[in-house]
Structures are given as structure tokens and as C-alpha cells.
Design a protein that fits this description.
Length: 234
């Protein structure tokens, strides 16, 4: 007999900095679910445990955890499993399934391909993807570089991937790449996106063109639906 599922949408962004379009997308995705759900801001104390236990009271026995982010931060790849396992030790009737972040979905790949295809081809500028990392983690860089490699092959443009910190930060790459660039921000924090945009223009001026964010194009909604459909929640 199949165990009844329940979904936890995991948000790593601070609530006060959350792009409201993203929250709207989550609620629209939730309308299509056939199972109970909870929205959890990971930085809120005890909220993760409360979300899991609330689903248990609704009859859920398999907890589906979906990071509403494009790549695995250190919190998602390392801290989250430890926190969840600690909770489940006290709830032996429950199990957890960890879904991958949204960056490796077909929905995200196709949306970026379409966006790059709309850019002028007279000067096939390389592309720089900029995403938010909380630490210079190997998982974050691996996931981002995999996406960049796929885009390079499909688009015919050289695509680079950068985070905010460490050896492969966007500031370092901006000083190394001398040609004009298309900049694709993969950020859901409005304040952070504004800060990075200002830094890019300060460092590169007119040699950088910043493309519309994925949040503005509602592509993240399709990515969430893809993940949850594959997990049997829709």
C-alpha cells in the first residue's frame, strides 16, 4: 500500500527579502497538489519540525521536501538532512524524500535556452550565470557548471557559472572575462539581485547586459510542477 505523501516547500531566503512573485508561484503550484503541503522558511526556528509534524497530523507518512532554489547551498545539501533525520528519529512512522533543487529541471534549461535564443546574434557574447551560494560548496559549483555546460552546447555561446563567494565568485570572473557579457541572474532575493546588478554595472558598465530573471518569467513554477509531478504529488 502506497504511503500517503505530504509536501514541504523549503525556502532558504529570509521572509522579508522574499520575492513576492515566488511566493505567489508556490501557492499556485500548491493548488495542483493532490496531497497536503506546508511552506517552510528554513531560518525560522522550529518551523521545519512544525511543518513535518503538521503534515503527519493530516495523515502524511512520506514527507517530500522540495527546495525552492536553483542549486544546493550548504544548508540544503548538508544541514537539512541532519535536521530532518533528527526530527524523524522521534517519529518512526514517517519517512523523508529529498528532491533536488530546481536548476537541473528541463523547465529551467529550456527557459534559459529560449531566453538566450532571443538575444541578437551579431555578437555572440558569452553568458555569465550568477546564483546565490551560502558557502563555496562543491555541490553548488558542480550543479551550476553542469547547467552551464548544457547551455553552452545548446546555445552555441560560452556559458560561465559563478556564485557570490570564493574562488569562482562573479566579481572575480568579471575581471577575468574581457569581452562583452550577457548576465543571467539566478536570484530570488530582491535586495540581493539589486546589489549584484549594481556591482555588475559598476565593474563592467555598458559591456554587460542583464537579462530578465527567471522569477519574473514564472519559469520556477514550471520547474516546481516538474519535480512534484515526478514525485507523484500531482
Amino acid at each position: 500500500m502506497e504511503r500517503k505523501k505530504g509536501v514541504v516547500f523549503l525556502i532558504t531566503t529570509d521572509k522579508k527579502h522574499l520575492n513576492q512573485s515566488l511566493l505567489q508561484m508556490i501557492n499556485e503550484v500548491a493548488l495542483q497538489l493532490t496531497v497536503p503541503f506546508e511552506i517552510c522558511f528554513l531560518n525560522e526556528k522550529n518551523r521545519l519540525a512544525e511543518s513535518i509534524l503538521d503534515l503527519a497530523t493530516k495523515g502524511s507518512r512520506e514527507i517530500i521536501l522540495l527546495p525552492v532554489s536553483l542549486f544546493s547551498t550548504a544548508e540544503i545539501s548538508q544541514t537539512l538532512p541532519e535536521r530532518v533525520n533528527a526530527i524523524l528519529k522521534k517519529e518512526p512512522a514517517l519517512t523523508a524524500t529529498f528532491l533536488q533543487p530546481l536548476g537541473s529541471t528541463r523547465a529551467i534549461l529550456h527557459s534559459l535556452v529560449d531566453q538566450l535564443a532571443q538575444q541578437p546574434n551579431l555578437l555572440p557574447q558569452p553568458v555569465l550565470l550568477i546564483a546565490a551560494d551560502t558557502a563555496n560548496s562543491a555541490t553548488f559549483n558542480e550543479e551550476g557548471n553542469t547547467l552551464a555546460q548544457k547551455l553552452t552546447i545548446i546555445s552555441g555561446r560560452k556559458v560561465y557559472f559563478a556564485g557570490l563567494l570564493g574562488k569562482y565568485s562573479y566579481k572575480r570572473l568579471l575581471t577575468q572575462i574581457k569581452t562583452p557579457l550577457l548576465i543571467q541572474l539566478l536570484l530570488t532575493d530582491d535586495d540581493l539581485a539589486a546589489k549584484v546588478t549594481a556591482e555588475v554595472y559598476s565593474l563592467r558598465g555598458k559591456q554587460a547586459m542583464i537579462l530578465p530573471s527567471l522569477v519574473e518569467s514564472y519559469r520556477l513554477e514550471k520547474a516546481m510542477l516538474e519535480r512534484l509531478k515526478n514525485a507523484g504529488c500531482i
